Amino acid sequence: MIRRPVNNNTVTEESAAVPAGGVRSAAQASHLRQAPFAWLLLATGVVGWVMSAILVLERLEVYRNPAHVTSCDINPWISCGKVFEHWQASLFGFPNPLIGIVAFAVPITTAMVMLAGAQFRRWYWIGLQAGVTLGFVFVVWLWSQALFDIYILCLYCMGVWAMMIPMFIQLTARNLAHGVIKAPAAFVRFFTSWSWTIIVLLWIATAASVFFRFLNAFIGV
């Protein structure tokens, strides 16, 4: 939990985030409020978990019946079933969505506990940041494989991509604002002030990369 000062030399998670001048930006202050972040963590975690669960169910059906047509087998370029056929879909020897089932349960649980009023110690936030960062890197790799190697899209996978962006950026902003991640005050102010802009830009960049990579498929050439 966040430790309260017992003397003048004690530093709390909150006080560690105060710049040298002693003034927080409005964006930093907003990130110090617990409920909005908890709701975002819950929403992104639930959507990511549901997308992963659907993929697991579809994969089990394919195991049972190799001729099964998945719910996102729309055309040759948008097909979960075809993606399942590639090694990237089971990087560690089992279907990737199983990782999502386990991993997304952590931010969901974290959000529920936060909404109940509990607070976590700094080591927990460091661990969560490490886990979400690894997840984000994994998603970036999967995006690159879908666009430049497999050349097939999976709608549910793209749903996971979309959720990992705000989860990673806002968790990072939260941890910067609380001093969990040590950084210069100017960078903290910049990142917390522009976090949603960064998210929107990443969404746009991802959508644009998909559009231009699959442009020939979209226009029927």
TrEMBL record:
Gene3D superfamilies: VKOR domain (1.20.1440.130). GO terms for cellular component: membrane. Residues 34-175 form the Vitamin K epoxide reductase domain. It is found in: Membrane. GO terms for molecular function: oxidoreductase activity; quinone binding. The chain crosses the membrane at residues 37-57, 98-116, 123-144, 150-173, 194-215. InterPro entries: VKOR, VKOR_Actinobacteria, VKOR_sf. Pfam families: VKOR (PF07884). Keywords: Disulfide bond, Membrane, Oxidoreductase, Quinone, Redox-active center, Transmembrane, Transmembrane helix. The keyword Zinc does not apply. Its main location: membrane. It is a multi-pass membrane protein. It comes from the Bacteria. The keyword Disulfide bond applies. Belongs to the VKOR family. This is Vitamin K epoxide reductase family protein.
